[in-house]
Amino acid sequence: MAECTLREAMHYARTSHLDTTCERGDAPVLYMNGWDVFDALPQLWDSNIDQIPGTIQPLTVSENRKLNQANLPQASEEELDDQMVRKARGLCKLFIGAVGAVTRIHQDNSNAHAWLCNIRGRKLYVLCKPSDSSKVAPVATSGSKAHGTKYSGRLDPLDPLAQLSAQRNGLQLFATVLEPGQTILAPDGWWHYAVSLTPTITLMCNFWDRINLFGLHDMFYEHLARVIDTARREQGVGPKVLIADMNATRVTHNPPIEYQTMHSPFVYVRDLPRTDANVLGVLRPSSKDRCIVTIDLEVDGWLRTAEPFDKGQHGWLLAHGGKLGLGVLMQKVSVVNAAQQQLNMMPPAELLKLQKQIAAAGLQVPKAEQPEMY
Ligand SMILES: O=C(O)CCC(=O)C(=O)O
Q: Whose CA is nearest to atom 6 of ligand 1?
């Protein structure tokens, strides 16, 4: 990361190709890549900037507003308006590229679509289909970021050998040179690569419509999970760091069993069975405030999702956080169903008798432990 003024960055982008330092390999080509221009200069923001003419209906702002209202109802309308403007403008980034400045092939985070508008200069873009992912040789970068990319590929589309092997593997490369004033759309999951052929200025904006809205939800809940996680830790009420003892009791479930979340509004999915591990994402209630997850392996209080979570990684969920003061987060659906079934199958007279006995004893019908809400 290099620090410089905007004027210096512009000067560098305009002139760096005039000497041969980079060409000789004596210095890398620097790229001002993904500058939060509208956060830095909010006076330049105009709510029309992130609009897309035509049939695409971006839902980024309206859906974010709904998610905020549902999950953070204490915010006032003005606060919400302000947050939405910040959100929208934070998704638009500026790129100032010298000749040869490259953005390696990658997929955008959170299933976002992106439009990239070339304001100045000419840029070569190479795109590959999501279904060709394995041929792009994806490497997941560590952790997950709020913006930018989590998935980059090893493929260098300009390397003649890579082109040959792409041809042999049946990998389709879609290439175009973007002229000033032209915009390219990289839909959710499409791999994209860019190289500046002349000095360039590009505006990029991530957005979501009805096709990839789930990605926006994931991003929202993941962010919320992180904020809460951090706050809990800072206040000392969060989960203690628990290093998973991989020799601890392991139980394999074959066939896998189903659990449902008890935890509202979501449960974290971590990449390791440790409370301080990366949050891969969150499981959201899909219906009636609950979501069902299938589990194949248990290590102490941790459950591994049977289905790979978030682009191929298995996620770990805390099943019973009693020891950690977290309360019960998950419960076995099979157990709940079995108890319910017993009650359902009981003849009405017997059921009434049971209820009377319970009431006479001053007991309550046992309920699942109430989850801690956060
Ligand atoms: O350098 C570029 O123009 C591409 C930027 C890009 O692909 C991105 O930010 O997702």
A: 103
Q: Would you give per-residue pLDDT tens digits along the chain (374 residues)?
A: 668 899 999 999 999 998 887 777 778 888 999 999 999 999 999 988 888 888 889 999 999 998 888 777 677 889 889 989 999 999 999 999 999 999 999 999 889 999 999 999 999 999 999 999 888 877 765 444 433 456 888 899 999 998 899 889 999 999 999 999 999 999 999 999 999 999 999 999 999 999 999 889 878 877 777 776 666 666 665 545 555 555 667 788 888 888 877 665 677 788 887 766 777 777 776 665 567 888 888 887 788 888 887 767 888 887 765 544 455 667 777 655 555 556 666 777 776 776 676 667 655 544 433 333 32
Q: Indicate whether this model's pTM tops 0.85.
A: no
Provide the 8-state DSSP code for 225: H
Distance 195 CA to ligand 1 centre (A): 9
237 three-class SS: coil
Q: Is 210 exposed, middle or buried (0-12, 13-18, 19+ CB in 10 A)?
A: exposed
Q: Which atom of ligand 1 is the closest one to the Cα of 34? A: 9
Could you tell which of 204, 206, 207 is best to mutate to test the pocket of ligand 1, judged by most ligand atoms within 8 Å of the CB?
204
**Which numbered atom of ligand 1 lies nearest the CA of 149?**
10
6-211: CATH topology is: Jelly Rolls (2.60.120)
Nearest residue by C-alpha to atom 10 in ligand 1? 108
Tokens at 299, concatenated: 């290590």
For residue 280, what are its two tokens? Answer: 């891969």
* Backbone dihedral angles phi then psi of residue 314, each to the nearest 5 degrees: -80, 140
Q: How far is the CA of 112 from the centre of ligand 1 (A)?
A: 12
The one-letter amino acid at 25: G
Q: How far is the CA of 103 from the centre of ligand 1 (A)?
A: 6
The protein residue with its alpha carbon nearest to ligand 1, atom 2, reads: 194
β-pairing, 302-305 with 292-299?
antiparallel
Identify the residues whose C-beta falls under 6 Å from ligand 1.
34, 95, 103, 108, 114, 116, 123, 192, 194, 202, 204
Q: Domain residues of the chain, as ranges? A: 6-211, 240-360
